[in-house]
Specification:
single chain, alpha+beta, Elongation Factor Tu (Ef-tu), domain 3, 6-stranded mixed beta sheet, 6-stranded antiparallel beta barrel, globular
């Protein structure tokens, strides 16, 4: 079944958890025992009906405070499509969690409270969706019941976000007026919005096209070298990993990077037996025609469409650490696909101003949840694509060598 990965984002109290709960509830994707537990908890708190936010607010701290702190994943399906839905936090303190949830998303739902309109966190979440190259964005203008389903309120927010999306370069934006609490335009069209001519949220999620494959050739980072050296397989040498982009076929001419050695794919093995080809996302073992030196961290790539091999590059970074700041001269461990290497920040170019959406703001450091552009030098050459061309081979993380903590998420820009 076709799969769509979704991330939700919005400010605190915009109703993300309630919207997801309503989506699951009205699409009958909640198990009976789960619904019974929610009904009991809701009744004990004085609610007349089920508090649907409890479906995603799983941590005790979240339930007590009524906010989302961690990323909650929910899986559900309709006859049309399967979904993996990440409910990400809305508070500015947890912006880094949104980066985690949206990093693999093909569609982002940005909630906007109809009473408040576009706020700073709305702009921040839109900027993150743009940086992460999320192909589709839905602006769910929530709590329309609290503004009397006023079309003028909806139109004003739609106009403002459309302008914001144009500034950021978001390619596909759809706005939907909803009331998550009552279910208006969530699964079925509401009689309260006769002026709305689009689809309800679920129908739109079922019909939106999934992201197209990266516009690059085959990219196969080597995770493990398989050499059983048994009597049955004395000369077997295979290279295991996951295909991050493109298609790899037996007989294809490939290059091993960063060494630059060329060879041909002689076989593709899987747990279920040999295959003629591997496609994006497949985990396979690749056999090569020549005895070339290949090890973990190397990349087997299309000889006709090769990635860049760099030791210095520019990147956009979202800073994730509250204990450590990013400054020029700082040293980290950089992990890109299956290769880890030491890196140094040669230049902190700018910090993104979420109000003006420009990178013109000079900065001496990036702190928690800051977005900025940096120049990095690495100790070992990396085979990379720009993030706009391939999310799989254009992304990396920065790790504090002392603690082992992930402190930054980066996207190669050039």
């Amino acid at each position: 079944m076709d799969l769509l990965r979704i991330a939700t984002a919005g400010s605190v109290d915009d109703g993300k958890s309630t919207l997801i709960g309503r989506l699951l509830y009205d699409s009958k994707a909640i198990l009976a025992d789960t619904l019974d537990a929610i009904n009991r908890t809701s009744k004990s708190r004085g609610f007349e009906g089920p508090d649907l936010a409890l479906l995603t607010d799983g941590l005790r701290a979240e339930r007590e405070q009524g906010i989302t702190i961690d990323v909650a994943y929910r899986y559900f399906a309709t006859p049309e499509r399967a979904f993996i839905l990440a409910d990400t936090p809305g508070h500015v303190q947890y912006t880094r969690n949104m980066v985690t949830g949206a990093s693999t998303a093909e569609l982002a739902i940005v909630l906007v409270d109809a009473r408040n309109g576009i706020v700073e966190q709305s702009r921040r979440h839109a900027a993150i969706a743009a940086l992460l190259r999320v192909p589709h964005v839905v602006v769910a203008i929530n709590k329309m019941d609290l503004v009397g389903f006023d079309k003028a309120v909806y139109d004003a927010i739609k106009t403002e976000f459309t302008a914001l999306a144009a500034e950021l370069g978001l390619p596909d934006v759809v706005t939907i007026p909803v009331s998550a609490l009552n279910g208006d335009n969530v699964v079925e069209l509401s009689e309260n919005t006769p002026w709305y001519e689009g689809l309800p949220l679920l129908r739109h999620l079922e019909s939106v096209p999934t992201a197209s494959a990266p516009a690059v050739g085959a990219r196969f980072p080597v995770q493990y070298v398989i050499r059983p050296q048994t009597t049955e397989h004395p000369d077997y040498r295979g290279y295991a990993g996951k295909l991050e982009a493109g298609t790899l076929r037996v007989g294809d001419d490939v290059v091993v990077l960063p060494s630059g050695l060329t060879t041909t794919v002689s076989g593709i093995d899987t747990f279920d037996g040999p295959r003629d080809a591997a496609v994006l996302g497949d985990s396979v073992t690749v056999l090569l025609a020549d005895d070339v030196d290949v090890s973990r961290g190397d990349m087997i790539a299309s000889a006709a469409q090769q990635p860049l091999v760099v030791k210095e590059f520019t990147a956009n970074v979202c800073w994730l650490s509250d204990d450590l700041a990013l400054r020029a001269g700082a040293r980290f461990l950089l992990k890109h696909t299956t290769r880890s290497t030491k890196a140094i920040v040669s230049e902190l170019i700018s910090r993104l101003d979420v109000e003006t959406l420009s990178h013109g703001e000079e900065a001496t450091e990036l702190g928690l949840n800051d977005l900025g552009r940096v120049r990095l030098k690495v100790a070992q050459p990396l085979a990379v694509d720009t993030y706009r061309d391939s999310r799989g081979t254009g992304a990396f993380i920065l790790i504090d060598e002392l603690t082992g903590a992930t402190v930054g998420a980066g996207m190669v820009d050039g």
